[in-house]
Design brief:
Elements: H1 3-20, H2 23-30, H3 36-54, H4 64-91, H5 94-101, H6 104-115, H7 123-146, H8 152-174, H9 181-203, H10 209-213, H11 215-243, H12 245-249, H13 254-266, H14 273-296
Length: 297
């Protein structure tokens, strides 16, 4: 790989994490005016429209088994994950959600051990998982004890991390199809939106136009739809294709720190020493787990 390609790949991964690390704050702001499903559907409709403008070609359906992988990936990675994330933000701090979501690579390793060949758990992984889990517990206790929030939000964030791990396994299986990154992303977005529509009908989808037109809401919707969805799904996949999954996943460790910092600056959420300690433990745990994989590779 050329040095310039490597530099662009690292920049792509860094930009992706900087954006994704602040999405919790944007969603928290939008929840003042919209429901979780309204935010979710508007965000990915914008994202799909942007991808279609970039690649305005018809995407053919594949074999039933291949299409089923895309459908379940859209269900898990788009609809369920983000619905759980947005709902969690109604009950707990954006900082809590950002840190708890960062344990997703640990769930991914567990699911890969079960469903993918060549992946085995080891003592180093278990040590890393316990360390990260201790950090999650500290973050959760900080939220519920110091700020008297409902721990339901922390639990939903934890489930969202597991759902994202399922999505990651599915995307690894889909990657063998050798389709372009934009094509894969568009198909996953399409199925995610299809699953969102009946949920939106049941839960009620009637965002006020006046609320959408407000400068703050419009900015955050465009940020989530065009930046965090359309752009970042593509830049993340580009980084993985150039650097590999192991090296790229290291950037996920930045999410807790970015979320803690942005939530304190924008939302003025209270960040206590316990929260900082929890974030550090989570990052150390994830680092320990991934380091073993890097040495084995």
């Amino acid at each position: 790989m050329k040095q310039t390609d490597s530099i662009f790949a690292y920049l792509a991964a860094l930009i992706t994490m900087l954006v994704w690390g602040t999405t919790f704050v944007s969603s928290k702001i939008l929840l003042r005016s919209f429901t979780p499903i309204e935010i979710l559907l508007m965000r990915f409709l914008l994202g799909y429209a942007a991808l279609w403008l970039v690649y305005p070609h018809r995407i053919r359906f594949g074999k039933p088994r291949e299409e089923s992988l895309f459908a379940v990936a859209g269900l898990c990675g788009i609809m369920l994950y983000y619905l759980l994330e947005n709902t969690a933000l109604e009950f707990t701090l954006a900082a809590n959600v950002g840190v708890i979501i960062s344990v997703a690579p640990l769930f991914t390793a567990i699911f890969a051990h079960v469903f993918l060949k060549g992946e085995r758990l080891n003592i180093s992984f278990v040590d890393g998982f316990i360390t990260a889990l201790a950090g999650v517990v500290l973050i959760t206790l900080n939220g519920s004890l110091a700020l008297k929030l409902n721990p339901l939000g922390d639990l939903l964030a934890f489930v969202a991390a597991a759902v994202w791990a399922v999505y990651s396994i599915l995307m690894k299986k889909i990657s063998v199809s050798h389709r372009s990154t934009i094509t894969i992303t568009r198909k996953v977005f399409f199925y995610g939106i299809v699953f969102m529509l009946p949920v939106a009908v049941c839960l009620g989808f009637h965002p006020a136009i006046a609320k959408i037109a407000e400068a703050q809401n419009l900015f955050n919707l465009l940020f989530l739809g065009l930046g965090a969805s359309a752009m970042c799904f593509v830049t993340w996949n580009f980084a993985v294709s150039r650097l590999g999954a192991v090296k790229t996943s290291v950037f996920i460790y930045l999410v807790p720190l970015i979320t803690l910092t942005s939530s304190a600056l924008v939302l003025h959420e209270q960040i206590t020493p316990m929260a900082v300690t929890g974030a550090i433990l989570t990052i150390v745990g994830l680092f320990l787990s991934e380091q073993k994989k890097e040495r084995e590779k």
